[in-house]
Amino acid sequence: xxxxxxxxxxxxxxxxxxxxPWARQWDGMNEGxxxxxxxxxxxxxxxxxxxxxxYADAALYDPGSGQWTVTGSLATSRRLHSLTVLPDxxxxxxxxxxxxxxxSPNILTSAEVFDPATGTWSPTGSMHTARCNHHAIALxxxxxxxxxxxxxxxxxxxxxxxxxxxxDPATGTWTETAPMIHARAAFPAAxxxxxxxxxAAGLVxxxxxxxxxxxxxxxxxxxxxxxxxxxxxxxxPLEAGRPRVGAQMVALADGTVLLTGGHTGGPQNWNYAPFxxxxxxxxxxxxxxxxxxxxxxxxxxxxxxxxxxxxxVLAIGGLEYGGYDAGYxxxxxFDPATGNWGPLLGLTxxxxxxxxxxLxxxxxxxxxxxxxxxxxxxxxxxxxITKTDLFTP
Length: 393
Hints:
Shape: globular
Structural class: mainly beta
Number of helices: 0
């Protein structure tokens, strides 16, 4: 009997494929599945439906068979970590949150490397600063820039930081570089054509609540310096200065960068509008300015943004931040040529807090996440899923 899963693609382009070995959610900007050079997809770590347990499990998806298979586990369980593919095809897992929140310290400096040839993880140099909910991005020269996130500084339980450092895969060591101008966590980053890195928005903690940021800055890996650039929100007069937490950002084929979605802050004291954002903005690295772009058809938080081989951009799933009840069962496409978002395309199941990655053949894989969220879930917990979908453009 064949073990191959035959996707039945719907008119929307989405089809179910093999399930994950376990239900899992990925909240962080880049802790979800990554594409390996051999075409397989690696998923590792993540959290449970209450944010109380971290996992070390790892699995590989084979697009040929449409199946996930369990592979070697991380040495240390972690969530809100980062996974970054290195030039030699190995994968760097860095930082994250370990164990139950009642234990301390539980934010990690450790890092480890996955070898797809052996299916095993091995330790590598530890970061100088413990961090979770940070961002990691591969630079043009193959090194990895890790920046920001949340850390621990006694007697404070958690602290959003600006610290940045660079991992050199040739030596397996980390070197501290200049800190960001603004401390931030839960923020997106994009590699520009000239090798600089753009970071935008994110959050800081203040007064017991989470506050969104408008500040943006650029990292120059040659000069090893950060410089400010135009804040988000300045292109939309009625929304001037509107901050964003959890926005998604992607570099476009023409060198500009698209930013969309997220929310403004909260929810501890609900001092901020309890709604997801649909507004979009586009950054031009030549002028250093943001311009208004068409809003998404549906405002989204905890969603994913993927650039397709066509140059168009796919926004997938997510949720209404204030409602926080269920994951959206739809996606939509942005066309940079027209500046418009297209019709809604139905997923096989609604989801938020999931992983998404573009495959080598141009299809898009999404896996795991939460179908039903705390307010609507049993006992106030998320309902996590194993379901995996494929999108064929």
